[in-house]
Amino acid sequence: MDDHPGGDEVLLSATRKDATNDFEDVGHSDTAREMMEKYCIGEIDSKSVPAKRTYIPPQQAHYNPDKTSEFVIKILQFLVPLLILGLAITVRQFTKKE
């Protein structure tokens, strides 16, 4: 693999598949074609190649058209601390000794 002019990444990207098109697209020299005969493992039987699988998208989260519960929670997360702060200030004002 170190001797390959295209580098080892090119060879590794063509592993576990029919690399004929990859080899032909590059436009290899006659010397490369002679060397290929030495390293060629074999021909792939087209009958043994599995059919192309269709893409099945992942399941998406359930859409919640009624977002009122989320809205109420966000409002409460904002208002409850303000109410507690207001209550604390009010109690401090009425219990303060002058």
Kindly list the characteristics that best describe this protein.
elongated; single chain; 98 residues
Structure commentary:
The protein has 98 residues and is mostly helical. It has four helices and no strands. The chain has helices at 8-13, 20-26, 30-39, 68-95. The N and C termini lie far apart (89 Å).
Task: Describe the protein's topology.
Blueprint: H1 8-13, H2 20-26, H3 30-39, H4 68-95
Number of helices: 4
Classification by helices and strands: mainly alpha
Biggest sheet record: none
Strand proportion: under 5%
Q: Which residues sit in consecutive blocks of at least 5 with pLDDT less than 50?
A: none
Mean pLDDT, nearest integer? 80
Distance between the termini: 89 Å
- As a whole number of angstroms, the C-alpha radius of gyration is 35 Å
Number of strands: 0
- What string gives the helices and strands in order? HHHH
* Helicity level: 40-55%
Q: What overall geometry do the principal axes of the alpha carbons give?
A: elongated
What's the short version?
With 98 residues, the protein is mostly helical. The chain has four helices and no strands. The chain has helices spanning 8-13, 20-26, 30-39, 68-95.
